[in-house]
Amino acid sequence: MYNTRAYSIAIGFIILFFITLIAKIFGLTTLSWLFDKFFQVGLIAIVVLFQAEIKHGLRILGGRALFKKSFGYNEDQIQKIMSATFNLSYKGYGALIVFQRNISLHSLVDKAVRLNADISIELLESIFFKNNPIHDGAAIIMENRIAAASAYLPLTETEPQIKNRRLGTRHRAALGISEQTDAVVVVVSEETQCVSIVHGGILEYNLSRDELYKRLGELLEVKVD
Questions:
Q1: Are 108 and 151 in contact (CB under 8 A)?
Q2: What was the pLDDT predicted at 219?
Q3: Are 213 and 82 in contact (CB under 8 A)?
Q4: What single-letter DSSP state applies at residue 206?
Q5: Could you give the count of Cα atoms lying within 13 Å of 190 in the half-sphere of its Cβ?
Q6: Which pLDDT value is given to residue 157?
Q7: Which keywords does this Swiss-Prot/TrEMBL entry list (predicted)?
Q8: Residue 31 sits in which domain range?
Q9: Dist. CA 7–CA 10, nearest whole Å
Q10: pLDDT-based confidence at 10, cuts 50/70/90?
Q11: What's the number of domains the chain is made of?
Q12: Which whole-number Å values give the CA distances from 119 to 54, 127, 143, 144, 152, in the listed order?
């Protein structure tokens, strides 16, 4: 935290605030005027520097429903997605499966290969089969259906690492979309066959079948046994 850009800027503004306060107490009019102007410019600079974070916050706020509603997923769908996920892992195929929650993912679907298909183990496995031309990118799950495949997600600007292992594009894409929306993402690593879940910019790496089942149930608000 102490090395972040936000922390450094906050400390700088606190110091300048106290300098300005001291200048006003001792009647240093010119110095006080200069710092007042600096604060006005500084506020504009903060908006420019943190425009991505501000846009993210507004997107999250705008995407939340006034009255909370169910995400619409059920246990049967979770079971099918679980089976497909671990089948893909066993076969050594990479996968990226994105679940819509409150914030719409239609902008991703519009640029992807539209499917609008029922959720099935066979279809999910075939999407990520290596020789399938649409295996790159993500499958988007929304409104109880596989809405699209081959969707390209925004990459996180961080460099995620787990146990000194630098993670690849799929994990960076999962983190990126989870930072910009409230989506939940399941990732299968082609290199390690590890299954992970990503939400809210948090990566939970190398989950067992039972762990993933529990986390999907919690995050998608599906009651699972």
A1: yes
A2: 94
A3: yes
A4: S
A5: 12
A6: 80
A7: ATP-binding, Cell membrane, Membrane, Nucleotide-binding, Nucleotidyltransferase, Transferase, Transmembrane, Transmembrane helix
A8: 1-64
A9: 5
A10: low
A11: 2
A12: 35, 12, 11, 7, 20
